[in-house]
Amino acid sequence: MNNQKFFKQLEAEVARIDAAHTTKRQETIIEGFELQPSPRALIDGKPFLVFNSNDYLGLRHHPQLIAAEHRATEQYGTGPGAVRFISGALKVHRDLEKALAKFHGREDAMIFSSAFATNLAVLFSLLKGQSKDSLVDNSAVVISDELNHRSIIDGIRVANLEKEQKAIFKHLDADHLREVLKEKLGKYKRALVVTDGVFSMLGEYQDLAKIRKVIDDFNNQYELGVLLVVDDAHGVGAFGATGRGTEEISNAKADVLIGTMGKAFGADGGYVVSSKIIIDYLRESAATYIYSNNIAPGTAAAALTAVKLLDTTEGKKVADTLKTNIIYFKEKMLNLGYRFAAKSEHPIQAVLIGDTAKTKNLKQAFYEQGVLVTNINYPVVPQGKDEIRVQLSAAHTKKDIDQFLQVAQQAGKKLQLI
Ligand SMILES: Cc1ncc(COP(=O)(O)O)c(C=O)c1O
């Protein structure tokens, strides 16, 4: 019964995590949503305004997405049946890929069960050949922004590179990236630079024009060039005048762009868009695509509807509403005396509180008044940088934001934050 000893270790580890206040398993259970006059989550039968969701455009309750999901489920059934190389791709999967490629102005796209699964496979495949027969050169260095998302970090881990093949550039620092590319020059035949588009803790974005310029300067110096891989999970759909994300905001393009359909697009699943040759290669090498089911056909149909909707008059209106909500929220919060942890034009707005107990108390005050927000505390952020992360949505009405502001004012005064 030696595994009993192991279970004791697991118990001790869970207790350690609880004691460090970094526990994540005490999840709120949402029983459903009230949709009128605007969406509210039902918890213990009570309605809550949702200011902690990635549904930036409010599309997850959109009647067109729901109808498309129902139709596709009728047409194809509830699940994909098998992986694509076994029983074939469903047309709705391929239609979605074509729509995503067109949306981002690329030759082709490929969809995965999640953006996390996309990053794992894309990074592995682009960093490593798949077998001893592979013609892909493994002499590669990967250079990653120091605050990249966990799925990027794990994608690099999966590639199991030598220590020297992995480098980090300082957060949002294109000059430091230049230094690292210079330092690695001559040691590796090719380089891969990878970054989040929007960083989800603070809502800041990587200026891709600056990064692109550095990469272009080095592309001909490395024997097999330099690739820019951007994961814009929080940017696509939600950022830029037409929802093209960080590429649109910074007016530059990645070589390989990863996105999710589980945030602004209101559905689920991940994707990568790129040139035909990169996508052809990934279809032959990406393990989480080849050996793992794709999203359900209903989900693919909902995502396809969202992607198309973004380019309609209604889509433009939704994007404008989101922008108006962000501007209104920021202005009113500043007027109340709050500060933000970073400058952000994105729906993620990090309200700087700076004290762990006060941040938790403020989050609790919001909860008691029927508003959901996220508190982000040390050690996730540095000491003194504790924040309340607010996520705005086009689904919020002015009245919803005013309700948020009223709580922020009352609780903020009580906690001596403003
Ligand atoms: C930058 C980034 N990449 C990937 C993901 C994962 O997305 P998905 O839920 O589609 O796996 C997230 C989600 O938080 C993210 O912020």
List descriptors.
4-stranded mixed sheet; 418 residues; single chain; Aspartate Aminotransferase, domain 1; 7-stranded mixed sheet; binds pyridoxal-5'-phosphate; Aspartate Aminotransferase, domain 2; alpha/beta; 15 strands; 2 domains
Question: Can you tell me about this structure?
Answer:
By secondary structure, this protein is α/β, with parallel strands linked by helices. The chain has 2 domains: 17-50 and 313-414, Aspartate Aminotransferase, domain 1; 63-310, Type I PLP-dependent aspartate aminotransferase-like (Major domain) (Aspartate Aminotransferase, domain 2). 43% of the residues lie in helices and 16% in strands. The protein contains 15 helices and 15 strands. The chain has helices at residues 2-19, 63-76, 84-87, 91-103, 115-127, 150-158, 174-184, 208-219, 246-250, 276-285, 287-290, 297-310, 313-336, 356-368, 398-414; strands at 32-34, 40-43, 46-50, 108-112, 140-145, 166-169, 190-196, 226-231, 256-260, 270-274, 339-340, 348-352, 371-372, 374-376, 387-391. The strands form 3 sheets. A 7-stranded mixed beta sheet has the order 4-10-9-8-7-5-6, sandwiched between helices. It has a 4-stranded mixed beta sheet with strand order 1-2-3-13. Helix 9 links the parallel strand 8 and strand 9 (256-260). Helix 2 (63-76) packs antiparallel against helix 12, helix 4 (91-103) runs parallel beside helix 12 and helix 7 runs parallel beside helix 8. The longest helix is centred in the C-terminal third of the chain and has 24 residues, at 313-336. The chain starts with a helix and ends with a helix. Pyridoxal-5'-phosphate (PLP) binds next to helix 5.
